[in-house]
Amino acid sequence: MPHFYTEPTITVLARPQFIEPAHLPVNWMGESTDGERLAEFAGRLCYMSQKNPANRTTREYLENIKKQGHGSVLEHATYSLLFEGVSRSLTHELVRHRAGFAYSQLSQRYVDESEAAFVVPPSIIGDESLLKAWQTQIESAQTSYVALVAELMERYKWVEDKVHRRKMAREAARGVLPNSTETKIVVTANVRGWRTMLELRSSEGAEFEIRRMAVMTLRIMQKEAPGMFSDFETYIAPDRAEAARIAYHKI
């Protein structure tokens, strides 16, 4: 029996480390993270306002940045996240976000999927009849994959390089695997990119799985950098699933 995911797992891999230059010290006020201070420092450099004449805390400063739409300073802060328990259907949508993003995803050509996991579509969770029918199709597809790999390995037995032979077999056999096949992907983006992606993918119009992932990611980013994501609000949408909305649109 394959493993079935009912929600993703998200891990923070990297966050900014801010090193303040001794010759340009900022009069910092209030609590902040390295990513937030980096963005504030970059913004203050533009006007040489390191003395903080308005006596704003870092998060008040960033609130004004968002309000004014000066999103460029947010591009300096970059975060890397590992997503697991997401489907290839989700990542097909996710990788459409290009500006400010970098991706590294599990390769079905190199990785054996004979024991692959699968992601249960959110709309099916809780309905035993639909879940059973879906699982039957999934198990059939995986059985077909295993059989095809074995047959293709035999067909290409004349290829001496076993690694290349396995790639040839898996790249052909993966065609029978469904979009629900679980994958893993490392995603790196600057804060401006994360904000744009989360605005679009946490909205009511987004597909349920990526919307669930976006809401989970939003909560992580609100802990990592509250001042840069505080204008997002989560709520229960009319379709009874969580969604989020933003105050400052596409800065």
In words, what does this structure look like?
This protein has helices at 34-47, 58-68, 88-94, 128-155, 162-173, 191-201, 208-224, 226-229; strands at residues 4-5, 9-14, 78-87, 101-105, 118-119, 182-190, 232-236, 242-246. It is α+β, with helices and mostly antiparallel strands. 31% of the residues are buried.
Descriptive keywords:
four-stranded antiparallel β-sheet, single chain, 251 residues, two-stranded parallel ribbon, alpha+beta, 2 domains, Gyrase A, domain 2, 8 helices
Give the spatial strand order of the biggest sheet: 2-3-6-4
Unreliable stretches (pLDDT < 50, length at least 5) are none
What is the terminal-to-terminal distance? 46 Å
Query: Could you give the count of β-strands?
Result: 8
Helix content estimate:
40-55%
Kindly identify the CATH topology of the largest domain: Gyrase A, domain 2
Q: Provide the structure class.
A: alpha+beta
**Rounded radius of gyration (Å):** 23 Å
Mean pLDDT: 95
Order of helices and strands: EEHHEHEEHHEHHHEE
Which outline best applies? Answer: elongated
Count of runs of 4 or more consecutive helical residues = 8
Number of domains: 2
The protein's oligomeric status is single chain
Name of the CATH first level of the largest domain = Alpha Beta
